[in-house]
Amino acid sequence: MSSTIHVARRLVLPAIIASSRIVFADDALDIVQGDRIQAEIDALRMEIDDLRDERDEASLDATRRTEIRRLITDVVADAEMRTNRTNRHWNVIASSDGDFTLEADVIMQYDWVLNSTSSEPTRYGFSLDTLWLSLGGTMFGPKWSYGVCAAVGSDGTFIPEYAYVQHQFEDGLFVQAGILSEYFSIEQAINPNEQLGTSLSFVAGQFDAGQPEGILVGRQFDQWRFWSTLSNGWGQSYIDPLENQRTGVMTRVELKPFGDWNTLYMFNPYPGLVDRGLLFGFGGSFDWGDYAAGTGRSISGDATRATADVSWQQDGVGLMAAAYYQDVPVSQTDGGRRWAAVAQGAFFPVSTWDVYARGEWGAVENGSRSDFAMATIGTSWIPAGDSRLKVVFELVRSWGSTADWSVDGDIGILSTDGDQTVFRTQLQFAF
To answer: CA triplet 273, 279, 284: central angle to 5 degrees?
Structure first.
């Protein structure tokens, strides 16, 4: 505005004063001169208008630039708040207030296996070992959460792994209801992508509670935590509740002298990602009642199972040992009295490679006694430095009889009375 006024004072006022002098000095001035002066005044006015328009356009451009810069600043700040401050990953979406969140996860394990058994012909081939699709998050704020996971079988069928709703109380106590995750042994509770090598130990598959349907109560403290489950019974998943008059309780207690709860459930102690830690775990299960009475699937009688495990880790080194026991009516599948033990260790010579070994033993009394022993050695290439991508090569040797044991999570191993050698390679992708 000041520049325009200055131009006006410099150009218009002298012209007006000059014209006034001309008019008053000579009343007989020719009309042509008046027209010429008026034309000059009009030209000056047009020049002033042009200057004013240029001023206004420059001001508008500056305003636009300021608004654009402010918008960019706001967007960047909002992005910082939604990602860095909340530590959300790229596979997490949330409402504007953060009360509703949704995280999607995928775990895929694809194997090639070869089995050589003294009493069987050599067998080999490809197989989809694991494909988990899971969703989880919060709703109505952080106190309410949910989790849904389905496993896709090699035949394309969907099998629920868990589907629950959870409420977190102020004192740290939480309650879940639905199809629950298994909390018996550390091996069964750990995510498949954090297992050592290609799979769980062979003996852990014998003590698989399935997907219990019921209610779970748990709480975590600084140095210890627990979970307790009331369900339809051990292994009683996806059943008609009117056929089932069996009930089971299961509890796991963990003690942590030192370490981080989040990384103690990693059998692969990735360098730079895990803290030094020590974990003691104890699990117990008791079932009673009848299932499908009067049918060929009848299960009855009391069943007791117990486990104890210890896990230690530090940067690049991890050890785990576990013992199992059961006393189950012989009439049940995989019944009888059983003992089993497993010990394993993993070491990272470099940040993207690990080597590991595992030893197992099991015995069963089911009218007669049988034993087996198993040894596994292997190595994993982990290019990303974590569980997102892993390529595994391992060799398994078994002695004795596995005919009376479940083969759960150990693809390539047969239930047989003969010794067997298994080679497995696996591609794992997870996020």
So the answer is: 130
- What are the φ and ψ backbone dihedral angles of 391, each rounded to 5 degrees? -120, 125
Examine the pLDDT at 206 and tell me if it is beyond 60. Answer: yes
Q: Please give the CATH topology (third level) of the domain spanning 102-128+180-430.
A: Porin (2.40.160)
Distance CA 27, CA 22 (A): 8
DSSP symbol at 193: G
Other Cβ atoms closer than 10 A to 385: 14
Range list of β-strands (E), 212-335? 213-220, 224-231, 244-258, 277-291, 299-300, 303-314, 317-328
- Of the chain, the end-to-end C-alpha distance in Å amounts to 61
> Is the distance from CB of 278 to CB of 247 less than 8 angstroms?
no
More confident residue, 404 or 228: 228
Of the CA atoms within 13 Å of residue 103, those in its CB half-sphere come to 13
Q: Would the pTM count as exceeding 0.70?
A: yes
Instruction: State the Cα angle at 154 between 148 and 155, rounded to 5°.
Output: 95
Q: Would you state the structure tokens that stand for residue 10, as one six-digit string?
A: 């410099």
Res. 41 pLDDT band, cuts 50 70 90: confident
Domain extents in the chain? 2-82, 102-128+180-430
* Closest to 134 measured CA to CA, from 193, 186, 177, 174: 193
User: Looking at this protein, which amino acid is placed at residue 386?
Assistant: D
Q: Please provide the DSSP assignment of 74-85 as one string.
A: HHHHHHHHHTTT
Burial of 370 (0-12, 13-18, 19+ CB in 10 A): middle
186 within 8 A of 281, measured Cβ to Cβ: yes
**370 within 8 A of 354, measured Cβ to Cβ:** no
285, 284, 281: which is closest to 187 by C-alpha?
A: 281
- Tokens describing residue 381: 């290439």
Contact 424, 392 (CB under 8 A): yes
**Predicted local confidence at residue 17, as pLDDT:** 43
410-420 residue pLDDT tens:
678 888 888 99
The band of 4, judged by pLDDT with boundaries at 50, 70 and 90, is very low
